[in-house]
Amino acid sequence: MSLRGVAAMAAGPGEPALRLIVGLGNPGARYEGTRHNAGFWFVEALARQVGALWRREARFHGEVARAQVAGRDCWLLRPLTYMNRSGLAVAAAARYWRLPPEAVLVVHDELDLPPGVARLKRGGGHAGHNGLRSIQQELGEAGFLRLRLGIGHPGSRELVTPYVLGRPPAEEESQIREAVARALEVLPELMAGDLQRAMHRLHTR
Length: 205
What we know:
By secondary structure, the protein is of the alpha/beta class. About 35% of the residues lie in helices and about 20% in strands. The chain has one domain (about 15-205): Peptidyl-tRNA hydrolase (Rossmann fold, 3-Layer(aba) Sandwich).
C-alpha cells in the first residue's frame, strides 16, 4: 500500500478511523524521562509493542514509524521541533497524507489529571499547553483526538515549567507508564473509529 493509501482506508463505526498517532515531547537527552515527554513514552511503547522502526523525516520535522495495530496501518510521529513548535510536524504529516484532523490522535501530558489517569477527548481548548496551542494554530482547528496522560499539578502556576520539565519520582513514573499501558489496550477500538467504546473502556477502569 502506498503512503497516501493508508489515509484512504475505510473508517469504522461513528468516527474516522485513526491514521496518525502523535506523541508530544522535547527531543534530546536533557528532556528524556521528564513529565512533558509523556506523549513520547506512549508512541515509543507502541512502537516497541508492534515492532515498528523509527526513521527521521526532515519533511515532517520529526521521526516517523509505520505501524500495524489491530490489523490496520497507521503512522507514528515524534516531532523533533520542541514542544512549542509541535504543530509544524503535525500539520506537515497531516497535509502529506491528506488526513482530516479527526483521523489524528495527539498524546500529551496533562496537568489537570493525577498520575495514573488517562483520558480521551475530542477537540477543546489548549489550556496553556504549548504543544496543543501550536497544533491548533498550524491545523487551523482543534478537532483532533487527544489522549491526556495525567502527570499531576505542582500546586502553583509559577512552578509549572520546572515541574513539567522535571523527572517524576519513581512511583509517579510507574503510575504514568501504567496509564500508557492501559491506553494502549483501547487502540483497536480507536483504529476502527469506535471512540465511544474506547472511552468507555479507558475511563471506567
